[in-house]
Write a structure and sequence with these properties.
alpha+beta; 209 residues; four-stranded antiparallel sheet; elongated; 4 strands
């Protein structure tokens, strides 16, 4: 799970894209296409809206992710599906543009925290049993996805500015603003990292015992 979190952070921070298509003649159209792709965490579609970039990190996740990693990515996609947005302003200055949007997204941070609390007792019991770090991770992720269905997360809003440049093929996003990392992951990266550290702590304690 740590590998997936690290790769996901790298992916979301480095995304900036290629080949949107000639139909993207206005900055607003590129922005709408981007947000629709973000709503499903469709990285190929996201990358199709940008000026330049690489899919190396995403390919690595897709090729190496185990079942738990894939379940975690599914959880993040379920959060992303709750996203909505409104484009509030577009300023064009020659071959550059700035598209302002207000994004409403599901904040999954407290859900991750409460799920960790739910499974903590079982994780501590694992210190005296045969449960492995992998077993604890599987239990946590399964519980996390289950809780998402029964405990809808609260929503937050973020103001996002997409900086664009006009190319021969239409308007492209130069790079993703930092605020999109929070939006695309439902504000969960910090809590998921804490969860991964906890699982590692359980495994270390088992070895020492």
């Amino acid at each position: 799970m740590k590998r997936t979190i690290a790769l996901l952070c790298a992916l979301l921070l480095l995304l900036s894209l290629t080949a949107c298509g000639s139909s993207y003649s206005k900055p607003q159209k590129t922005a709408q296409t981007f947000f629709k792709a973000a709503q499903t965490l469709d990285v190929d579609a996201i990358n199709a809206c940008g000026e330049s970039g690489s899919l190396m990190e995403w390919d690595l996740v897709q090729q190496t992710a185990d079942t738990d990693d894939r379940q975690l990515l599914s959880f993040l996609r379920e959060l992303a599906a709750m996203m909505d947005w409104t484009i509030t302003d577009t300023v064009v200055d020659g071959d550059t543009a700035s598209v302002q949007a207000t994004v409403t997204y599901a904040d999954g941070s407290m859900l991750v925290k409460s799920t960790m609390t739910d499974v903590m007792a079982d994780m501590m019991m694992a210190l005296f049993g045969d449960e492995s770090e992998a077993d604890a991770q599987t239990q946590f992720i399964n519980k996390l996805r289950s809780n998402l269905k029964t405990e809808p997360p609260k929503t937050q809003t973020a103001d996002v500015a997409l900086q664009m440049v006009r190319t021969a093929d239409g308007w492209r996003i130069r790079e993703l603003p930092d605020a999109m990392l929070t939006v695309l992951t439902g504000n969960t990266i910090e809590m998921l990292q804490e969860a991964a550290d906890t699982f590692s702590g359980v495994a270390s304690a088992q070895v020492e015992a």
